């Protein structure tokens, strides 16, 4: 597709269940990012993938959160044993190369809205 | 820890008004400051600023950075209802891929 595609767009889950959120970056983009946006808050960095390099996981809030990127393309963010405070919009983004720079724009997907009840 | 503070948090204006949105920051090893527009879901890129005093302009939107005072402003002239959105400010510091965002300014433009 033309843009970053995320699924599901909305997910309601019960506390304690695991969820998987998927991101299809723009074709050819080597860099992929996950951010979280809680209600009334700014975007919070979660994880960054660049090509075959080891990902920067420094933003993951707890060990219940994990992410992988298979074949340098699609990425999955997994949240185990979900808690109510995990409720947020999870935004994926991609760019041709790493980092926002001159001529290198980070494109965001429309996000997956997660509600934990 | 890097920090971005935006003001005001929300703003309501009438079509045709001019607005100024503010962004102040604290960041280690500043690389760039970015502005995004978020209408419903996906933030879209507006400007990237790296140098002080150089205005970036796109149509009715313009932005400038002051690296001495550590702030940026986003101006929108002759506002239209389509400008209604959340405007996000972000900075990149030591790593150019890890952006720190402010909470955003919710702009509502009434007809």
Describe the structure using short key phrases:
heterodimer, A: 117 residues, mainly beta, 4-stranded antiparallel beta sheet, 0% helix, 45% strand, B: 111 residues, 5-stranded antiparallel beta sheet, 58% strand, globular
Largest interface: A-B, 30 and 24 residues
How far is the first residue's CA from the last residue's CA of chain B?
A: 41 Å
* Approximate strand percentage of chain B: over 45%
Spatial shape of chain A: globular
Radius of gyration of chain A, in Å, reads: 14 Å
Measured distance between first and last alpha carbons of chain A: 33 Å
As a percent range, the share of strand residues of chain A is over 45%
Low-confidence stretches of chain A: none
Order of helices and strands of chain B: EEEEEEEEEEE
What is the count of helical runs of chain A? 0
Q: Structural class of the secondary structure composition of chain A?
A: mainly beta
Structural class of chain B: mainly beta
SSE string of chain A: EEEEEEEEEE
Short description:
The complex is a heterodimer of chains A (117) and B (111). Chain A has 117 residues and is mostly beta strands.
């Amino acid at each position: 597709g033309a843009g970053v595609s995320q699924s599901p767009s909305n997910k309601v889950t019960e506390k304690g269940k695991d969820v998987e959120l998927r991101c299809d970056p723009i074709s050819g983009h080597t860099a992929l990012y996950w951010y979280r946006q809680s209600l009334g808050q700014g975007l919070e960095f979660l994880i960054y993938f660049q090509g075959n390099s080891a990902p920067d996981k420094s933003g993951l809030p707890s060990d219940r959160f994990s992410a992988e990127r298979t074949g340098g393309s699609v990425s999955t963010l997994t949240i185990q044993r979900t808690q109510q405070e995990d409720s947020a919009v999870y935004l994926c983004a991609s760019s041709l190369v790493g980092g926002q720079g001159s001529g290198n724009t980070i494109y965001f997907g429309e996000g997956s809205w997660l509600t934990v009840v | 820890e890097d920090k971005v503070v935006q003001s005001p948090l929300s703003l309501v204006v009438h079509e045709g008004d001019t607005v100024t949105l503010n962004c102040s920051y604290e960041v280690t090893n500043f690389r760039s400051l970015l502005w995004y527009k978020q209408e419903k879901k996906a933030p879209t890129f507006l400007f990237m600023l790296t140098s002080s005093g150089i205005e970036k302009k796109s149509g009715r939107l313009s932005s400038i950075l002051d690296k001495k005072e550590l702030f940026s402003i986003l101006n929108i002239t002759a506002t239209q209802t389509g400008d209604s959105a959340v405007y996000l400010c972000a900075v990149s510091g030591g790593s150019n891929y890890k952006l720190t965002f402010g909470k955003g300014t919710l702009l509502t433009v009434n007809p």
